[in-house]
Amino acid sequence: MCTLQKLIQDLNITDFAEQFYLKEQLIISVGKTSNHVVLMAQLLSQGKCHGIHAFIVQIRSEKDHTPLPGISVGDIGNKIGYNAMDNGFLRFDNVRIPRRNLLARYSRIEKDGTYIPAKNPRLAYGTMVFVRALIVGGCSKSLAQACVITTRYSAVRRQTEIRPGGEEPQVIDYQTQQEKIFPLLAAAYAIFFTGDVMLKEYVRINADMEKGIFDEMAALHGLAAGLKAYSAEITSNGIDKLRRACGGHGYSHASGLPKIWTYITPACTYEGENTVMYLQCARYLVKQYAQAATGQKLVGFMSYLNNPVKQRSALNDTLNMSDMIEAYEHTAARLIKVAATRMQSLMKSGVSVEEARNMCGVPMVSAAKAHCEAYVVKLFSSVVNRNDLEPSVARVLQTLCKLYAVYGINERLGDFIHDGFLDGQQADMILNQTLSLFAEIRPNAVALVDAFDYPDKILQSCIGRYDGRVYEALYEYAKTSPLNKQEVHGSYYTTLKPLMEGKLKFDSLSARL
């Protein structure tokens, strides 16, 4: 087997029957750093297009780092965040690379130009699923860090006595503050467990694929697309909510929250923009619904589409997780049906498949979100109800899981009561139980964020310090501002002093008049 160095050396090799030409392809994440890229480009051979394939391409000299002939490359400039990553532009003008630069584990090109396809096109899904599983895990870590900072600060910060003359309570004791923090704390745990399970599922299913077994890959691919979008959306929106929960200090870089938010919010667009990911998931769901509608028995998590449709939920104030899982699956199945039947109706009227998908985009996204929520709730419940958990730990995690479930219902109540599966009385009960769960979580809130075990060195937050010395740290941070290097800033002489003198002369003239 060729080494990587051998694979990518000498762009001018000409001893192959088939060469590839790359013209004006645009990719990102090359900026000013990369010497080589993995380029996704169309593979053309013997006059036929074989679709997108991956090629290793050298773009800069390894001697002096200058771009190679025919290659234009550079950084795209500042972004809202994530600026340590030199996202860039890359343009090719008749650049020739050898046949061996094709990543050819599953498909390849022979010397005479014959294309040998992969045994199964779904093999290409593997890498995408793996990366999206990593993104889910990364989102959980960023959301967890923000929860650590906001929870600790809320336990230190005191404001506004509840009773006149009484002690100012910790901000975290206000129910409105608990509503901002605790559901996102539950989400951080839920998404963490989800990312962990996704990686394990990828390893298991990828091992099956190596043996030629592809039964579960499409399901995992669809789910991974949806969960990537779902976790990125919750994390990006959630961190901003947590930042605002810290008041003015949350707006400062001293809090550490802006850095966390600007680092992770690109997850909403990289490796697939969220709406596109939801639609990719929804396309799989619509296909599964069509199979279930014909009586085919679905396997795995998708089997809930085979469940008989119940008219009413048995959910009550005991908050039985099986009842809540049933509510989520019922709602997801209904929304999938809405999207699928609308598509079928449009296609029967003569609309093409592509147009029908576009005209069903909004209900398809709603269906995908509901499917992902149902999956996460069910997975979270299975984790926290394992028999090997220490009972006291299990009780706290089960409370978090219940909060995650009831808060999600309360947030999208319309979807759950739309067909009468939940009624008004149950909706009132869910709100009351949500507030009760806040109170139940409160004594363990700091311990729950400490359990993430993020040291101060990682958080880099004045307000999220483990020792609680928030205001001392803020003061020391403020003194490091470049504007504080001089007691009297230069702008006083150039702007402020002339303005003040002009105002004094005007006041003096007004007094004489």
Give your account of this protein's structure.
- The protein is mainly alpha-helical and 513 residues long.
- It folds into two domains: 115 residues, Butyryl-CoA Dehydrogenase, subunit A, domain 2 (Beta Barrel), CATH 2.40.110.10; 301 residues, Butyryl-CoA Dehydrogenase, subunit A, domain 3 (Up-down Bundle).
- The strands form four sheets. Strands 1-6 form a two-stranded antiparallel sheet.
- It has 17 helices and eight strands.
What descriptors fit this protein?
single chain, 513 residues, mainly alpha, Butyryl-CoA Dehydrogenase, subunit A, domain 2, Butyryl-CoA Dehydrogenase, subunit A, domain 3, two-stranded antiparallel sheet, 17 helices, 8 strands, globular, disordered N terminus
A few lines on this structure:
The protein contains 17 helices and eight strands.
Uncertain spans: 1-28
Structural class: mainly alpha
Q: How many separate structural domains?
A: 2
- Number of helical segments with 4 or more residues: 17
CATH topology of the largest domain: Butyryl-CoA Dehydrogenase, subunit A, domain 3
Average pLDDT value? 88
The CATH class name of the largest domain reads Mainly Alpha
Order of helices and strands: HEEEEEEEEHHHHHHHHHHHHHHHH
| Beta-strand residue fraction | 5-15%
Shape designation: globular
Major pleated sheet: 2 strands, antiparallel
Quote the distance from N terminus to C terminus.
96 Å
List the quaternary state of the chains: single chain
Number of distinct beta strands: 8
Radius of gyration: 28 Å
CATH superfamily of the largest domain: Butyryl-CoA Dehydrogenase, subunit A, domain 3
In CATH, the architecture of the largest domain is Up-down Bundle
